[in-house]
Design brief:
This protein is α+β, with helices and mostly antiparallel strands and 198 residues long. It has two domains: 30 residues; 123 residues, Rieske [2Fe-2S] iron-sulphur domain (Rieske Iron-sulfur Protein, 3-layer Sandwich), CATH 2.102.10. Strands 1, 2, 3, 4, 9, 10 and 11 form a seven-stranded antiparallel beta sheet that branches. 22% of the residues are buried.
Length: 198
């Protein structure tokens, strides 16, 4: 009994201390206005974050090798003969042609409305199935509503002696010497040369 009586006042003082401290610790629930401010602020922050990420992704795209917009390694053994039908690379959306002037990598999209011209071997030319534009093996315009020649991609040819030739800025062909061995051909589908107006 003596023990219970001696501990009882201590417990009473601890309980009194907790009760006196409790009102100072209480946290009021946010009002409806505060809650809506928090939700609105979080929504704006999320929207700005998404917009920033999308803008950075759009401004600095990363294209893999062998993917449209990147660089394609073209096998020199698949190079067509001079004046023969072009070699088509559907994944890169281009045709590799070889004329007496040299090598060209033609963008496989019509300069009129973006249809896909096909090589027609019986007529020995590219023909657009949509509106009838026609182009030579070199990509030069023959007839139809297309306002200019076919666009070109920049090609880089590396020879066995280590020298490199690149598509000229005016869209001309890369002259190839039959006596020089080609070790690699790179087609950059991210660097397009606009075809000349006719």
């Amino acid at each position: 009994m003596a023990t219970a009586e001696s501990t009882s006042p201590r417990m009473m003082s601890a309980a009194a201390a907790r009760q006196s401290a409790a009102p100072g610790i209480q946290v009021a629930a946010p009002s409806r206005r505060e809650f809506l401010y928090y939700i609105w602020g979080a929504s704006i922050a999320l929207l700005l974050g998404e917009a920033s990420a999308g803008l950075i992704w759009f401004a600095f795209p990363r294209f893999k090798e062998g993917e449209f917009g990147g660089t394609f390694a073209f096998n020199p053994e698949e190079l067509p003969a001079v004046g023969a039908a072009p070699t088509s690379v559907p994944a890169g959306r281009f045709h590799v042609t070889l004329t007496p002037e040299g090598l060209r990598a033609l963008y496989g999209v019509c300069t009129h409305l973006g249809c896909l011209p096909k090589w027609v071997p019986t007529n020995n030319r590219f023909e657009c199935p949509c509106h009838g534009s026609k182009f030579h093996l070199s990509g030069n315009w023959i007839e139809g509503p297309a306002p200019r020649n076919l666009d070109l991609f920049i090609a880089r040819v590396t020879f066995a002696d280590g020298t490199t030739l690149e598509t000229p800025a005016d869209g001309g062909a890369i002259p190839l010497d039959p006596n020089r061995q080609i070790t690699s051909i790179q087609i950059d589908t991210g660097a397009r040369i606009i075809g000349a107006l006719h």
